[in-house]
Amino acid sequence: KIVDHDPNCLFCKIVAGQIPSKPVYQDEDFYAFHDIHPSAPVHFLIIPKLHIPSMAQLTDEHAALMGRLMVLAPKLARQEGCNPYPAGGFRLLCNTGAEGGQEVHHLHIHVMGGPRPWLRG
Ligand code: 5GP
Ligand code: ZN
């Protein structure tokens, strides 16, 4: 069952300001903040304020919300210093479930970019 807010969830606590974070962006539905252990020159997370545990719980009702998240990502990437497409750009990552490498069970998208050599290949 999806609840709006889980008092035991780390990212719900971050949204509520109970745990400090470095903000990138916020509106009624989303919060973006810097990853505490960046693995790229630009590395922040975008989360819906709604407590959705992962992509595995998404339903058709979330389609518009997730669409807006995807539109937000490139805007914030540019604002945070990712260089323009196509020479610049960024990578999105959404770990889902234990086998997907998910550690925090509140849906989030990693936005990673900035000058190489952080990314191989
Ligand atoms: P995932 O669940 O996709 O594996 O990753 C969770 C991400 O959240 C990790 O990259 C980790 O560094 C980040 N993270 C975990 N705890 C905190 C925290 O308290 N504050 C912030 N800003 N990031 C966190
Ligand atoms: Zn949560």
List keywords for this structure.
binds guanosine-5'-monophosphate; 121 residues; HIT family, subunit A; single chain; Histidine_triad_HIT; globular; alpha+beta; five-stranded antiparallel sheet; catalytic activity; binds zinc ion; Histidine triad nucleotide-binding protein; Histidine_triad_CS
Please provide a written account of the structure:
By secondary structure, the chain is of the alpha+beta class. The protein has one domain: HIT family, subunit A (2-Layer Sandwich). Helix content is 19%, strand content 21%. It has a five-stranded antiparallel beta sheet with strand order 1-2-3-5-4, with helices on one face. β1 and β2 form a beta hairpin. The protein starts with 9 loop residues before the first helix and ends in an 8-residue tail after the last strand. The site of guanosine-5'-monophosphate has 13 residues, from β2. It comes from Rhodoferax fermentans. Pfam families: HIT. One of its GO terms (molecular function) is catalytic activity.
In terms of structural class, how would the helical and strand content be classed?
alpha+beta
Which H/E pattern describes the elements? HEEEHEE
**Chain oligomer state:** single chain
- Structurally, how many domains make up the residues? 1
CATH top level is Alpha Beta
